[in-house]
C-alpha cells in the first residue's frame, strides 16, 4: 500500500468522527496553550521584578547594620546599630570606585498639613540619595549639604505623600508637621520639592509613599541616635560592584575591630545579589506554572491513547478486511500512528494560537508585559508531537498485530 493512500485513509477516519476528533484534541490544545501562556506570564513577572530592582538605582550597594540577639531573639537587619556616619564618610573617601554615599535612617510617622494627615515613612538621607537612586525631582529642589550640616527642618515629598497631603495645591514652599508614631513631639518641616513617580518595589511597597529629610535632621529631631540603619553606596560602573563590596567589607571590619574568624556585625548586599535572588524566585515560579500546565499535555496524550484504543476496537473488522486484501502490518501501524500524530500536531498548532492569544489578552486586560517565548512554543509543539507518537504507538502496534482471520470474525 502506498504511503499516500495510508495517509488518505488515516485522514478519512478522523473526518468520520469529527466531534470525537475535536474532543480528543482539546487536551493537547489547552495543554500547549497553557504552557505558552504560563511561560509568557513568568517572563512578564521577571521583567516587572527587573524594572523594580532597577528603580533602586544603578550599581547600588546596601550596607545594613547587623542583627542583635536579645534573649535568643534576633532583631533583624539594623537592630544592632553598628553603622555610623563616620563609616559612611570612610567608605566615600577610601573605597575606589564609589561615587555617592548616603547614610539612612527610617521612622514611621504621622504627617499633618492643614486639615489633611497621612501616615508614612520618613527617611533620613544625604544629598547624594537621589543620585544613588537615580530619582529625579518633579518640582522644586533637593536639600543641600548646608541643610545636612545644620540639621535643617526641610524635606522632599514622594508623589503619593504629596497628593495625600496637598491634593489641590502645590506642596513646594508649604509646611508640614511630622510626629513620630507613639511620640508626643512633632517638628515642622518646609517642603522643598516633590519627587517623580517611582512605583512599587520588589516587595510591592509604594516607593512614592515617603518623605526624605537630611539624615542629621532625622538623628536630631526623630531618632535621637548616633547610628544609622544602613548605608547606601553607588559605584561608577557595574564592574566595580564586587570589588567595592569587598573593599567595604575589609574597611568596616578594620574600623569595627572585628578579629579574624569572627562574624561581621553588618550585612552587605549589592544590586546584582538582589536581582539574582529575585530572578531565581521568578524562574522557580515560571517552572512551576509550566510544569502544572505540562500535566494537561500528559492528560491530553492519555486521552489520545484512550481514543486510539477505542478506535482499534471499533475498527477491528475493517482492519481484518484491509489485511485480507493485502495491507501489511506496517501499513496498519503507519495509519494509526498518522492519526495519533495528526491529532496531537493539529492540537499543538491550535494550542500555540490559544497560548499566544491568551498572553496578548493578558497584556491588553491587565497591562502585564507578557513575552511569548519562541523556545516555549517550539518545546510545547515538539512535546505535543512526541506525545502523539508515544500515545499512538501502542494502539497502532496492537492494530498491526491483529490476526486477519480473528479480525474478520470480530463482531
Would you kindly provide a written description of the structure presented here, covering whatever features stand out?
There is one protein chain. The chain has 411 residues and is an alpha+beta fold. It folds into 2 domains: 3-52 and 277-409, no CATH class; 83-264, no CATH class. 55% of the residues lie in helices and 19% in strands. The chain is built from 13 helices and 14 strands. The chain has helices at residues 3-16, 18-54, 85-94, 129-133, 145-149, 159-165, 215-223, 241-255, 271-314, 316-324, 329-366, 374-400, 404-409, and strands at residues 60-65, 69-70, 73-74, 83-84, 98-113, 116-125, 137-140, 154-157, 175-180, 186-195, 210-214, 227-228, 230-235, 266-270. The chain has a 6-stranded mixed β-barrel with strand order 5-6-11-8-10-9. A two-stranded antiparallel sheet has the order 2-3. Strands 4-12 form a two-stranded antiparallel sheet. Strand 2 and strand 3 (73-74) form a beta hairpin. The radius of gyration is 33 Å and the shape is elongated. Mean pLDDT is 81; it is low at 68-75.
Distance N to C terminus: 26 Å
SSE string: HHEEEEHEEHEHEHEEEHEEHEHHHHH
Oligomeric nature of the chains:
single chain
SSE class: alpha+beta
Helix content: 40-55%
**Tally of helical runs:** 13
| Weakly predicted, low-confidence segments | 68-75
What does the main sheet amount to?
Answer: 6 strands, mixed, barrel
Tally the beta strands. Answer: 14
Arithmetic mean pLDDT: 81
Please give the order of strands in the largest beta sheet: 5-6-11-8-10-9
Approximate shape: elongated
Number of domains: 2
Percent of residues in β-strands: 15-25%
The radius of gyration computed from the alpha-carbon positions, rounded to a whole number of angstroms, is 33 Å
Amino acid at each position: 500500500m502506498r504511503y499516500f493512500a495510508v495517509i488518505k485513509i488515516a485522514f478519512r477516519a478522523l473526518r468520520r468522527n469529527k466531534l470525537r476528533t475535536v474532543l480528543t484534541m482539546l487536551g493537547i490544545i489547552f495543554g500547549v496553550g497553557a504552557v505558552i501562556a504560563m511561560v509568557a506570564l513568568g517572563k512578564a513577572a521577571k521583567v516587572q521584578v527587573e524594572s523594580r530592582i532597577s528603580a533602586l538605582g544603578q550599581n547600588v550597594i546596601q550596607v545594613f547594620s547587623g542583627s542583635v540577639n536579645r534573649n535568643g531573639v534576633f532583631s533583624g537587619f539594623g537592630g544592632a546599630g553598628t553603622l555610623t556616619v563616620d563609616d559612611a564618610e570612610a567608605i566615600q573617601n577610601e573605597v575606589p570606585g564609589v561615587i555617592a554615599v548616603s547614610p539612612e535612617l527610617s521612622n514611621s510617622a504621622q504627617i499633618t498639613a492643614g486639615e489633611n494627615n497621612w501616615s508614612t515613612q520618613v527617611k533620613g538621607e544625604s544629598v547624594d540619595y537621589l543620585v544613588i537612586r537615580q530619582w529625579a525631582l518633579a518640582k522644586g529642589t533637593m536639600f543641600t549639604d548646608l541643610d545636612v550640616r545644620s540639621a535643617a527642618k526641610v524635606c522632599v515629598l514622594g508623589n503619593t505623600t504629596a497628593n495625600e497631603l496637598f491634593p489641590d495645591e502645590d506642596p513646594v514652599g508649604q509646611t508640614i508637621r511630622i510626629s513620630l508614631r507613639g511620640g508626643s513631639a512633632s517638628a515642622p518641616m518646609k517642603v522643598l520639592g516633590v519627587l517623580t513617580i517611582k512605583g512599587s518595589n520588589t516587595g510591592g511597597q509604594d516607593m512614592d509613599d515617603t518623605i526624605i529629610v537630611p539624615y542629621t535632621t532625622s538623628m536630631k529631631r526623630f531618632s535621637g541616635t548616633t547610628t544609622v540603619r544602613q548605608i547606601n553606596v553607588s559605584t561608577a560602573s557595574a564592574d566595580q560592584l564586587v570589588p567595592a563590596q569587598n573593599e567595604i567589607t575589609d574597611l568596616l571590619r578594620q574600623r569595627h575591630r572585628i578579629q579574624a574568624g569572627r562574624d561581621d556585625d553588618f550585612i552587605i548586599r549589592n544590586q546584582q545579589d538582589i536581582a539574582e535572588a529575585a530572578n531565581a524566585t521568578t524562574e522557580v515560579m515560571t517552572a512551576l506554572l509550566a510544569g502544572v500546565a505540562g500535566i494537561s499535555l500528559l492528560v491530553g496524550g492519555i486521552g489520545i491513547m484512550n481514543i486510539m484504543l477505542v478506535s482499534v476496537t471499533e475498527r477491528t473488522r475493517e482492519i481484518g478486511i484491509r489485511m485480507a486484501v493485502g495491507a501489511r502490518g506496517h501499513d496498519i501501524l503507519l495509519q494509526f500512528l498518522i492519526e495519533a500524530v495528526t491529532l496531537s500536531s493539529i492540537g499543538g498548532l491550535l494550542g500555540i494560537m490559544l497560548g499566544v492569544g491568551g498572553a496578548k489578552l493578558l497584556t491588553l486586560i491587565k497591562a502585564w508585559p507578557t513575552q511569548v517565548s519562541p523556545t516555549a512554543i517550539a518545546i510545547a509543539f515538539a512535546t505535543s508531537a512526541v506525545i502523539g507518537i508515544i500515545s499512538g504507538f501502542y494502539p497502532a502496534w496492537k492494530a498491526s498485530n491483529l490476526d486477519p482471520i480473528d479480525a474478520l470474525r470480530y463482531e
